[in-house]
Amino acid sequence: MQKSEKIKELIRAAKFTLISISAGIIQIGSFTLLYELCQLDYWISYLVSLLLSIIWNFTINRKVTFKSAANVPKAMAQLLGFYAVFTPVTMLGGQWVEGLGVHGLIVEIVTMILNFVLEFLFCRFVIYRNSCDSAEKKPEKTEENPEEKVEK
Q1: Can you give the residue ranges of every domain in the chain?
Q2: Relative to the CA of 115, which of 81, 85, 131, 139 has its CA 20 to 30 Å away?
Q3: How far apart, in whole angstroms, are the C-alpha atoms of residue 85 and residue 2?
């Protein structure tokens, strides 16, 4: 990998991190509201907060981090496959660990860190492996010929 490609991937990882932090705020905020204030079971609080953060993270990262023009339903289905494995494992595992006496918020934070790392790797090397930067700016029409598009 060339130096410019390494820098591009570091920038991509930094963008994913910042966007994931915003998704994390959504997840931890909704989890805390449901778990602490509404006194819902761990698994319900976790599932709702996870779904909210997934929707946010997928939508923003597809456009900003990966700049992908890939088939959105296909990308969503692939991410659904990831979460079809990740969610039951972490939901049941988290419920079990919380039942051992670990506070649900600590379990949630550890799970969020694991989710962050695994989702980045899955998105970068599975979902968007061939479509990163495929949604770069579209060529604009010229005044002389509005039908013709010219790269700038």
Answers
A1: 3-133
A2: 131
A3: 34
Q: Does pLDDT of 151 surpass 50?
A: no
Give the separation between CA 28 and CA 41, rounded to whole angstroms.
15
With b meaning 16 or more CB within 10 Å and e meaning fewer, what string describes 44-68?
Answer: ebbbbbbebbbebbbebbbeebbbb
pLDDT for residue 147 is more than 60: no
- Asked if residues 44 and 34 have their Cβ atoms less than 8 Å apart, the reply is yes
Query: Binning pLDDT at 50, 70 and 90, where does residue 138 land?
Result: low
Of 68, 59, 64, 53, whose CA–CA distance to 112 is shortest? 53
Which pLDDT value is given to residue 146? 52
Amino acid in position 59: T
Please check whether residue 148 is in contact with residue 141, taking contact to mean a CB–CB distance below 8 angstroms.
yes
At 76, list the tokens.
Answer: 């969503």
**Token pair of 28 as six digits:** 């931890």
Cα radius of gyration (the chain): 19
Judge whether residue 112 has pLDDT over 50: yes
